[in-house]
Each structure stands twice: as C-alpha cells, then as structure tokens.
Amino acid sequence: MTQGYELYGAEVSYFTGKVRAYLRYKRIPFSEVLATREVYRDIIMPRVGWPVIPVVVTPEDDIWQDSSEIIDHFEARFPEGPVYPQGPRQRLAALLIEAWADEWLKIPAMHYRWTKNRDWVIGEFGKLSRPDLDAAGQREIGEQTARPFAGALPALGATPETGPAIEKSYEGLLGELDAHFAAHDYLFGSKPSIGDFGLYGPLYAHQYRDPASGELMKRIAPHVARWVERMSKPPTPKGGAFLAHDEVPATLKPVFERIMREWLPVLIATAAAFNAHVAARDPADAGKPLPRALGMHAFTLEGATGQRAIFTFDLWMLQRALDFLRSLEGETREKAALVLKEAGGERLAEFPAFPRLARRHFQLVLE
Ligand SMILES: N[C@@H](CCC(=O)N[C@@H](CS)C(=O)NCC(=O)O)C(=O)O
C-alpha cells in the first residue's frame, strides 16, 4: 500500500501536465514524484515495460499509464464534477479535441521546443534526470536523455522544410483559440472538459512554460495564456457548468475546420495503412503488440508537403471518439455528427472501418 495516489512525471512533460491539471480540478489528493533516472529504472521500466510518463501508482499499488486511461480510472472513482459533458454534441467535440491535441499538436509543440528553446530545455532534462548534479553535469546528461525526444522530430514531420508551415498553422490556431477564450472560460463553458485537459498537454509544458514559446503565446494570444493559467490553478475546482442546450460554441468552428483540413486526411491514410498491415500480418503474431509506426507517408500542412510516420496510436485515440458517436442513435447521433459535418468532416462522421484496437500491458494490440 502506498499513502495515496502518486503521479510519476515532470514539468517538461506534455501528458503529465494533462493529468496534473485534471487532478487539481477534481481536488483529488496526490503527490507528484519526479521521474528521475532511478524512477525509470526501479518503477517505470519494471512495471510498465517501456520508458514513458506519466504513470500513476494507486494506494492499492496498481499502476495506470496513458493519460486517457488514467483520467477514466479516476472518473470512475471520483464522479463528482465529471469532465465528460453529458450533452452528446459537447461530448463528441471534447473527445475529438482530446485526441487531436494529444496526437496532432505534438508537431508544433516539438517544433517550437527543439528549434526555439533547445538550450533551456536541455538544462531541464538534465535537472529532471540527475537533480544531484551541478549545472554542467546536468547539461551533459540532458544532452543524452533529450536525444530520443529531439530525435523524434522527423518522424512527426517536423523538419526545416515544414517549419514555416508548422508555425503558420500553430499561430493561426492560437488566433482562433484566443477569440474563443476571449468569450468563454473553457472550451464548452465555465467548466473544463476532457477536451480542455487534452489541449492543456501541448499548451502548458511546451508552449507556455518553454520560455520563447511562452513569450509568443502571451504576446499573440493573451486569452489562451490566461486559460492555461486557469487550468493550472482552477478557480472553481469540481465546479462550473457546461453551456446549456448542449451548445458547441461557434467560436470553435474554425478550430474544427482546422482539424478536418490538417488531421483528417492523415487519419484516413492511417486507417488504410492499418487495414493493410492487419491483412498482411502473420497469424502467429495475433496477440503481439502492434508496431508504434507503420512506415512513413506524405502529409500537407498550410500548403507545404512533408513526410511523417504513420502512428497506430492515432487510431486508438480516434476510436474513443468514434465509439461514442456510434453509441448514439437516430436524431441524437445526427445532431452530434453535425458538429463534424459542418466543419468539413463528413468523412470523419462516416469514417472507414478499421480493426479494433485495445491496450494490453501498456501497449497497443488488436482487440
Ligand atoms: N498517450 C500517452 C503518451 C505518453 C507520452 O507520450 N509521454 C511522453 C512524455 S510526455 C513520453 O514519455 N514519451 C516516451 C515515448 O513515447 O517513447 C499518454 O497519454 O500518456
């Protein structure tokens, strides 16, 4: 038995931020433990099997990993102040924003971190891994531990060639979100939803806390910066309300249009690649973990074309939203699907079939 809930993570981490903000809003007591080298060696590697944060250890000594599963486990135990809207339109919109922010907004987050905040963040990685060393020692360790993260940029499609398009897209998004948060405290009213927690992942650790990125956000999107601050220190824990009549504010429409324009073609191509992969899979591999990436494919952003890895995880996140949409019936389903269709997402509402994904031992498998 541990004393309470322990969150293993770091301030520099995207998905630790998502879970931390959730726990603060829900007023769930927890202690955050820095994921140092020893923590990876003694807890994360033996119990999760691969180096990843955030990880939650429960008072019963169970291990939870993956921010969405962590939040779902907590929602079941602490139902007061639910973060999943009851209204089907808001709920579908929130799930889609969570999936997109988790997966697609990694591109600008990593681009800005590693092209505009590199020196600073190397020091942060060093401090995290070896809090016991001096600044020079930490820089050396930081260079090593940061390597896999910085090295992930080309797989995400973030290269010198796509850099200007990534910045155009992200700054456009900041403008759209700024207009929204000038009118609303959170995505769907005066209470944060699962969509807000997803969005906070990239917009806190990378885009607010990394100094050059934070300066940009505060300068061109001050309402977004204030939303980040509200999410960090919730003024009404467990409180607030989602907008009446299941309203999805019109100010979010440009954001949904952006999701359909930028991410939907990638999702459709990912589903096609996944179908081909499963069809060609050796039956002897049936229960084995799926590859994290299925080769590379082309993508387009703000008129620029690049290559990126085809990530299976995108489909697991998408499946959460599609499962919800497909659980609805008749007119309710039609109304929810309109949120997608009105933003140019007809093909998302009628998404091509792909084999179901599940998680086993913290890895993706075929269900
Ligand atoms: N989808 C997972 C992703 C966790 C994740 O990607 N964590 C990053 C740090 S924020 C990491 O440790 N990545 C290592 C890796 O992906 O190999 C979640 O929601 O928790």
Task: Provide structural commentary.
The strands form 3 sheets. The protein has a 4-stranded mixed beta sheet, sandwiched between helices. Strands 5-6 form a two-stranded antiparallel sheet. Strands 7-8 form a two-stranded antiparallel ribbon. It contains 17 helices and 8 strands. The relative contact order is 0.13. Helix content is 57%, strand content 11%. Helix 9 packs across helix 12 (222-232) and helix 10 packs across helix 11. By secondary structure, the chain is of the alpha+beta class. It starts with a strand and ends with a strand. The longest helix is centred in the middle third of the chain and has 21 residues, at 163-183. The model has no long low-confidence stretch (mean pLDDT 97). It is globular and about 60 Å long. It has a domain at 88-252: Glutathione S-transferase Yfyf (Class Pi), Chain A, domain 2 (Up-down Bundle), CATH 1.20.1050.10. The structure holds glutathione.
CATH architecture heading of the domain at 88-252? Up-down Bundle
What is the string of SSEs from the N terminus onward?
EHEHEEHHHHHHHHHHHHEEHHHEE
What is the first-to-last residue Cα distance? 32 Å
| DSSP strand count | 8
- The side-by-side strand order for the widest beta sheet comes to 2-1-3-4
* CATH top level class name of the domain at 88-252: Mainly Alpha
Strand content: 5-15%
User: What is the CATH third-level topology name of the domain at 88-252?
Assistant: Glutathione S-transferase Yfyf (Class Pi), Chain A, domain 2
Q: What is the arithmetic mean of pLDDT?
A: 97
Shape assignment: globular
Give the C-alpha Rg.
20 Å
Structural class: alpha+beta
What small molecules are bound in this structure? Answer: glutathione
Question: Could you give a short account of the major beta sheet?
Answer: 4 strands, mixed
The helical percent reads 55-70%
